[in-house]
Structure formats: structure tokens, C-alpha cells
Design a protein that fits this description.
Distance between the termini of chain A: 26 Å
CATH class of the largest domain in chain B: Mainly Alpha
Helix content of chain B: 55-70%
Order of helices and strands of chain A: HHHHEEHHHHHHHHHHHHHHHHHH
Oligomer: heterodimer
Number of domains of chain B: 3
Strand content of chain B: under 5%
CATH architecture of the largest domain in chain B: Up-down Bundle
CATH topology of the largest domain in chain B: Four Helix Bundle (Hemerythrin (Met), subunit A)
Radius of gyration of chain B: 29 Å
Structural class of chain A: mainly alpha
Largest sheet of chain A: 2 strands, antiparallel
Shape of chain A: globular
Shape of chain B: elongated
Strand content of chain A: under 5%
Order of helices and strands of chain B: HHHHHHHHH
Number of helices of chain A: 22
Chain lengths: ~475, ~200
């Protein structure tokens, strides 16, 4: 143990100290201090992001290899911190209007601690770190899901998430204990050595259980059952958070386990990933068609998108991992943008409206908002020239280059089914008669600015970012091989 | 010789108190017998040289778990007669569990002379000639420091979560305000009067 190790986990230290200090401020300041605490929390996340420029992204192995401070972890952490900051910023107005009371100051504190856990997940070099990070993230998420405890749906979402998340953790731990039992170590590098040599069936069983647990956390079919209920019941800013940062963290964790720890067993886990990928793409698309609630629709959309991300992982090559990171970047922007638009959907009484039917005629009542949502939906459907198309192209390109032609063709065909329900939202907005006055304007500069920024990012203007993003994702993926 | 005596003493008390745990009619007595069993099991652990597990047993099981049991038993007022009423209904499931447990015990006895499990690549080999508390401490605060601290964070989140989800401000309570109590002066709180005889006092 030396100072070099401590420098490599500097972002986590900043987040932890920030969260603890802010909790003390919250204890004395009470609900009146929430706004200030939220902004300070965003500053803390920014500070942690800046700290990534140091040894945290280039240091190599910290704590005898238990933490990997490399470009892959740093890239995922930038996404995670940014998504967490946006989830903090969008919350205060929502809770004040919905519950008539100020947001409690524990919200930004829990998000900071959750971000710390997610950072551990993506830079873990050991199954122990991975599991503790995962629990830190999940435990905060369970509380956040039922943050509006007077609301029955929110409480139900929290309870469901807790019970099913605990089950998933159990499955993952069972897999971890099998891997540990048959390889004698929890270090990723040593586990890879164990898989490379002749190994017993026990290691293969361990692999299957670990991947089942991971599939639960990224909500891939057939372990997706909790997603729509939790996304619908949780408060909208929390849902936006669930759909973005923890998805990136769980996916980053899955990629690292697959490549670094179980890389020599690629042929074994590839079958699981291909099945989960195709099942997610098809089920996510088909089940979304019948939805009438926009949050449920976005939940199925996230299942569908996880399927596409898994296509890149199934390739298992450096280009495939780079495609995964690129897809996640675009996905996070599209999803946060969509949820920011959902936040603007309010009735005359200020209460949130969540039906898709209430969007009808929005192109005439709120043309700017309708345009933004249309851009996000077109992009999620993967229609060129929006950035969502480039993301899908990247993962399918990687799959074809790795020789997975059937997967690429099946995924491509299934993405057409997905386009239907995204386009239905646009049809409702642009071709249906308006009902009522439309949603009242919020006049919130921060949220409006974020929606505009997200829309510009996925629009053809975002093409200028393709080259730098390509370089960054390739450098990040190279760190794993 | 002294070890043998200590072993038989501890082992006998563990078995007797475990039997009394499940047979005593008063649930509070049952928990107290359980605590006695834990203490003696800790003594057995010390005898085989696993002093760390012995301390865990005393601190975690006696100090936390058993006391929690006592609280639950005392506060929830569990009606054990009612619990026993379902005995016949669940006998089949109970029997299945019992069979599983017995077969595990038999297999464990079977393999007891098979030798230690060979772990191929131990991250941290068990050191010789070092007490196991020292060995664990050496690793816990160096190599596993980060995970150790992170586990503390998990507990912190659990505490914050419990408070966020259950704490609420009650209206109409009259909490103690120590600062106000101390700042109170005699002349504000008392009044000298000179009541006339038989006239009573006006408050």
C-alpha cells in the first residue's frame, strides 16, 4: 500500500468526502439547503471528473491489482458522473411541483455515494471490489426508487427493486463463489489464467451464474422483469438516473469481467451474450408496442438498447468494446434527453402526466419540445443522419468483422420492429389533434438548456464529435486488451 | 490433558444448552440458552486456534444477533403455541430440510479424512507462525484497505436509507430545548407575592 494507490482512486475519495461533508451540511441546513447542496454535489462530481485526468486514468494497477486505473474505467466514469450530475439537476423542481414540498437534501448525497459505487464497478480488478461497488450503487438506488414514500407506486417500485436486486446479487455471489472455489482467487488477472488452462466444469458453472447476475443488473432478457415496474413507479428524475448511469456502470462491469477475467473463455460466454442480446432486442421491441405509459415505453426501450450494446460485447474484439462505449455514450444522451422531455409533461394542476395519448398535438402547443422528442425518438429508432444510427452501425460493424453474421442480420431485422413504437410517438405528436391546452411552460433555464444540448448532440451537428469520440473509445477499449 | 478437559467441558455445555434452546417453553429462556451455546462454541474455536472466529462469535453473535433476538422476542410478543399449531401441515417440508441437513452432515463426516481442498492460486497464502488475527489485520489494512473502507460506505448508505425512508417530523411534540432551559433566569420564572391571610392567590 502506498501513495500511488491512493492517488489512483482519487475520484472515489473526492466523491466520498464530498458526500459525507454534504450530509453534515444537510443535517444542519435541512430542506432549505437542498438547492445549494445539489449545486455543490454537481461541483463535487465535476471535481471527481477532473481528477480522472491524473493517475486515475493512467496509473495501471492499484492496491495489488484490485483496482484498475485505466482509460476504460475513466471513459465510463466520465459518462457516469455526467449522467449523475444531470439526474441531480433535474430533481428539485420535479419534487417541489409533485409533492408540494422541497426535495430532501439526502437525494444528492445518495446519488454521490451511488456514483462512487459505480466508479468502483467499472474500475474493479477483483471480484470483491466489483461486488462491494455493486452493492453500494444498488443500495442507494433502492432508497432512491422509493424516495417519494407517500406515493404507493414509488414505495412499490422500491420494494420490487430491492427484492429482485437482492436475488440478482445472490445469483452473482453464487457465481463468484464458484469461480473463487475453482480458481482459488478473486483477482481478474489470475482468474483469466485459470480459464486459459484446462479447467473443471465448476468454472464454467461459475461463469454462467456470474453472467446471469450481470444480465439482471443490465436488465437484459430474460432477467428484465423488474425494469418496467420500477421505471414506472420511481420518481421521473430517479428513473432517468436508473436508465443512464447504472446502465453504463453495469455494462462497463460486464465488459471488464468478460474481457479481463473470462477472456480466455470467450467461446463459452459468447453464447450467453448472443442469446441475451437477441432476446432483449426482440422482446424489448415487441413488448413496447402495447404500452400506453411513456415511462414504461422508455423502460422497454432501455431493454431493447441493452440488446444492441450486447451485440458489441458478443463480438469480443477491441472494435466491439469501442462500439459498446460509443453506443453507451449516445444512448445516455438520448435517454436523458427523452426523460427531460417527460419531466416537462405536466397537467394544469402541476401533477405529472405520463400517458402517450397526452402527447397528441404537441407539435402545435409546444413545437420546440415536440421537435426535441422527435429527434430523440428518431435517434433511438436508429434512423440516419442522427447519431443513434451511427451507434447501431458501429456495433453491427464490429459483429460482422468478428464473423457473427447471423447475429448481425437478426439484430438488424429486429431493429425494424423497434422503429415502429418510436415512430408511433412521433405520429401522436405531429398528426393527432391536440387535447386541451398542452403542457404549461416551465421556464426552467437549466432543463431547457439540457434538452437543447442533448438534441444538438444527437442531431447531424453531433457528427463533428464522431472523430474525437472514436479516438477516445478506441483508446479506452485498448486498455482492456 | 488440560485441552481435553476444556474440550469436553465446552462441547458438553454447547450440546446441553443447544438442546435446552429448542425445548424451553419460555422464548426468553431459549435465547439465553442460545447465548450460552455461542459462548461455549467460541471457547471451542479458541481451542482449535481460530481465535478470530471465536471473537467474531462473541462480538457478532452474542453482542448483536442474540441481543436482537431478545429484543424481538420481548417486543413482538410472539405466541409460540400458535406457531406450533402448523406443525403437521408443514411436517413434510420440515422433513425434507431435515433430510438435506442430515445428508450434508453424513457427507461431511465421509470426507473428513480426505485432506484439505487444494486451491490452485491463492491470492494470499496462509502464513505460518503468525496468529490469525495478525494475519487478517495485515491484509485487511493494506491490500484490502479499499474494499474495507467501501464496505463502511455501504453501511453508511444503509443508515441514510433507513432514516430517509422512515423518519418523519411529528407535529405537536414538545421537545426539550436545552439552550432555552439554561438561558432561563429566576426573575423571569418566579414572582414574589404577599398574599393576605385567607385571600388566596391570583395566578
Amino acid at each position: 500500500m502506498n501513495h500511488a494507490s491512493l492517488m489512483m482512486v482519487l475520484p472515489e475519495e473526492i466523491l466520498t468526502i464530498g458526500a459525507i461533508v454534504l450530509m453534515l451540511v444537510a443535517a444542519w441546513g435541512g430542506q432549505g439547503a437542498t438547492k445549494m447542496i445539489s449545486w455543490v454535489a454537481v461541483a463535487v462530481l465535476l471535481g471527481a471528473g477532473i481528477a480522472l485526468a491524473g493517475p486515475a486514468s493512467s496509473g495501471g494497477a492499484a492496491f495489488d491489482g484490485m483496482i484498475r486505473a485505466d482509460a476504460f474505467g475513466a471513459f465510463a466514469k466520465v459518462l457516469i458522473y455526467a449522467a449523475t450530475a444531470i439526474a441531480i439537476l433535474m430533481a428539485p423542481r420535479f419534487f417541489r411541483q409533485t409533492t408540494g414540498d422541497d426535495l430532501r437534501p439526502e437525494y444528492p448525497v445518495l446519488l454521490l455515494l451511488s456514483a462512487c459505487g459505480m466508479g468502483m464497478m467499472v474500475s474493479a480488478g477483483d471480484l470483491l471490489v466489483l461486488y462491494v461497488g455493486l452493492e453500494l450503487q444498488s443500495l442507494a438506488a433502492y432508497v432512491l426508487a422509493s424516495f417519494m414514500r407517500r406515493d404507493a407506486r414509488s414505495a412499490e417500485a422500491g420494494l420490487k427493486y430491492f427484492v429482485l436486486g437482492a436475488l440478482a446479487s445472490g445469483i452473482l455471489l453464487y457465481g463468484i463463489s464458484l469461480v473463487y472455489g475453482f480458481s482459488g482467487t478473486t483477482l481478474f488477472s489470475s482468474i483469466a489464467t485459470a480459464y486459459a488452462g484446462p479447467h473443471s466444469l465448476g468454472l464454467t458453472f461459475g461463469l454462467v451464474f456470474v453472467f446471469a447476475g450481470l444480465a439482471f443488473k443490465i436488465s437484459a432478457v430474460p432477467f428484465h422483469m423488474w425494469t418496467p415496474d420500477v421505471y414506472e413507479g420511481a420518481p421521473t428524475p430517479v428513473t432517468a438516473f436508473f436508465a443512464s448511469a447504472p446502465k453504463v456502470a453495469a455494462m462497463g462491469m460486464a465488459v471488464r469481467v468478460a474481457v479481463e477475467a473470462m477472456g480466455p473463455a470467450t467461446d463459452q460466454w459468447r453464447q450467453i451474450v448472443i442469446f441475451a442480446s437477441l432476446a432483449s432486442i426482440i422482446f424489448g421491441a415487441v413488448a413496447a408496442i402495447g404500452q400506453s405509459n411513456i415511462k414504461r415505453l422508455l423502460a422497454y426501450s432501455s431493454i431493447n438498447n441493452v440488446g444492441f450494446v450486447l451485440v458489441g460485447l458478443a463480438a469480443g474484439t477491441q472494435a466491439g468494446i469501442a462500439a459498446v462505449l460509443f453506443y453507451l455514450t449516445v444512448y445516455v444522451v438520448m435517454t436523458l434527453g427523452s426523460f427531460l422531455v417527460v419531466l416537462q409533461m405536466r397537467g394544469e394542476d402541476g401533477q405529472p402526466v405520463e400517458t402517450i395519448a397526452s402527447l397528441s398535438g404537441m407539435s402545435r402547443t409546444r413545437p420546440g419540445l415536440a421537435l426535441a422528442l422527435a429527434i430523440f425518438m428518431f435517434s433511438l429508432a436508429g434512423i440516419p443522419p442522427l447519431l443513434g444510427f451511427n451507434a447501431k452501425l458501429a456495433v453491427f460493424d464490429a459483429a460482422v468483422k468478428a464473423g457473427l453474421y447471423p447475429l448481425a442480420v437478426a439484430g438488424f431485422v429486429a431493429s425494424v420492429i423497434g422503429a415502429y413504437y418510436y415512430l408511433r410517438v412521433i405520429k401522436v405528436m405531429y398528426f393527432d389533434e391536440p387535447v386541451g391546452e398542452g403542457f404549461p411552460k416551465s421556464g426552467d433555464v437549466v432543463e431547457g438548456g439540457l434538452i437543447a444540448a442533448a438534441a444538438v448532440f444527437v442531431s447531424p451537428v453531433g457528427w463533428v464529435l464522431l472523430a474525437p469520440l472514436g479516438i477516445a473509445t478506441m483508446a479506452a477499449a485498448k486498455a482492456l486488451f | 490433558m488440560i485441552q481435553a478437559i476444556a474440550f469436553y467441558l465446552f462441547a458438553a455445555i454447547v450440546i446441553v444448552s443447544a438442546a435446552l434452546t429448542i425445548t424451553s417453553r419460555n422464548p426468553v429462556h431459549a435465547v439465553l440458552w442460545l447465548i450460552l451455546a455461542f459462548f461455549n462454541a467460541a471457547g471451542l474455536m479458541v481451542l482449535v486456534g481460530a481465535e478470530f472466529i471465536a471473537m467474531l462469535l462473541v462480538i457478532v453473535y452474542v453482542g448483536a444477533v442474540a441481543v436482537l433476538f431478545l429484543f424481538v422476542v420481548m417486543m413482538l410478543n410472539v405466541d409460540f403455541a400458535e406457531l406450533r399449531a402448523g406443525f403437521v401441515r408443514y411436517a413434510a417440508i420440515g422433513l425434507a430440510f431435515a433430510v438435506a441437513l442430515v445428508s450434508e452432515a453424513v457427507m461431511a463426516l465421509w470426507g473428513y479424512s480426505a485432506g484439505a481442498i487444494e486451491l490452485a492460486r491463492r491470492t494470499a497464502p496462509t502464513p505460518d507462525k503468525v496468529p490469525n488475527i495478525q494475519a487478517i489485520g495485515d491484509l485487511l489494512y493494506t491490500r484490502y484497505l479499499f474494499v474495507f473502507e467501501a464496505a463502511g460506505l455501504v453501511l453508511l448508505v444503509a443508515m441514510i436509507g433507513a432514516i430517509v425512508l422512515t423518519h418523519r417530523e411529528r407535529g405537536g411534540t414538545r421537545p426539550q430545548n436545552i439552550a432555552r432551559q439554561i438561558a432561563r433566569r429566576p426573575q423571569d420564572a418566579t414572582r414574589n407575592t404577599q398574599p393576605v391571610v385567607g385571600g388566596g392567590i391570583e395566578l
